[in-house]
Amino acid sequence: MRGLRALVLGFCGAALVGCATAPSPEALAANDPYEATNRDVFALNRRLDRVFFLPTLKRYLWLPEGVRTGVHNVLRNLAAPTIFVNDLLQAQPGRAGQTAARFVINSSVGLGGIFDPASGAGLAYHGEDFGQTLAVWGVDEGPYLMLPFLGPGNPRDTAGLVMDTFVLDPTNYISFKQHIWWDAGRQYLNILDLRSQSFEALKGIERSSVDYYASLRNLYRQTRDAEIRNGAPAPDADLPDF
Amino acid sequence: MTKPISFARRAVILAALALPALVQPALAADPAETFVSQNIAKGLTLLNNKTLSKEQKRDQFEQFLLGLTDLKRIADFTLGQYRRTAPPADVAAFEGAFRDYAVAVYQSYFSKYAGQTLKILNTTQRAPTDYIVATQMIDPTDNSGRPPLEVDFRVRTDGPRPVVVDVSVAGVWISLEQRDQFVGFLGQNNGNVKLLISHLAELARQFKS
Prior knowledge:
The structure holds two protein chains of two kinds.
Chain A: H1 2-20, H2 25-29, H3 35-60, H4 65-78, H5 80-89, H6 93-108, H7 117-120, H8 130-136, E1 145-147, E2 151-153, H9 155-168, H10 179-207, H11 212-228
Antiparallel strand pairs in A: 1-2
Chain B: H1 4-27, H2 31-48, H3 54-68, H4 71-78, H5 82-85, H6 88-111, E1 117-127, E2 130-138, E3 149-156, E4 163-169, E5 172-173, H7 174-188, H8 193-208
Antiparallel strand pairs in B: 1-2, 2-3, 3-4, 4-5
Helix pairs in contact in B: 2-3, 4-6, 6-8
């Protein structure tokens, strides 16, 4: 307990020092005014990753690909109701219908989501979350944030994550004992699945980067923008002249 | 219930829809699309060539990349605001280091797509000499059902020959990412371009070994 308190106090202290330091012109230009703090949190996250995730991840990657694909499919299927609500909130009834049909097919024919026969039937997966919904509604992303445990983000996407996790996810409304273990286990598996999907790519990016933090910051922004546009090309104004 | 006549009608509609699609590549052939189509196929053939030694492949890939892209232009772009403030000698040294880095890193990246083919989807003309060619990498061995990787090429035709100035993989533009990375690094190191050059040289060396 003392260790945890020291960790929290240390993090708060680092955050206060970071906030007290005037942001550099580069940090302001990158919409990252808390860069000093964010870099400290990034270093903390990498340590946490080494302690909590990498050892399990290495064992997880030993599992046959079919097993990992099954876990990935189940997690995606569990997220379908949240995606469905966000499709509707973004006034995309066609995409909402697609998500609903995927959920019905994969939950039944796909044996609880282990298999993904819906994709084979032409109903391709797409993701949505409340952060994207807020973006579609015109909410600005706010400054870049590196969140402990969760990684890159911003106030808009963090609010979206809270909304998805605690309000829109229907499993919150199923009453059973020890619900917290279900939530914790599912979130841990989500992170493990995401890390396993991106493990090789991130290793390659880290290996070729002179500034891994700045690289991830940019990749997060560009990937989120592409998700918000549902894969449509970037507007002309977003592309620089060479 | 489907009536028998609807099949014939559907066939006519499909034929009408397919006809422009078949004709489109010929009509839409522009310098950027032709350039990407011919050169990327050449690059993939080079990477698939198992008769070449590691050194031969590296040399030929370097020639291929220099013919495909304008690395000096990309290097200057990735320096961001430091392009204006750094001494000209440092900028010239950076352009050389960036070239070595890009050849080493891109060869490593492109090697992952060996055995795949490129399918051109469409071309958007942003300005008279500025195009984006949208493509997909088709992996004939992939049975996962996942959609193919989308790769877009930004091509400028304002010079003596068309050149690629940026590539987007799954919605991420590589030069934009590199600019943020290099500017972030320089911001953390008092704008020391020489330090950036030494880091790039070290990364190029690691990728080559």
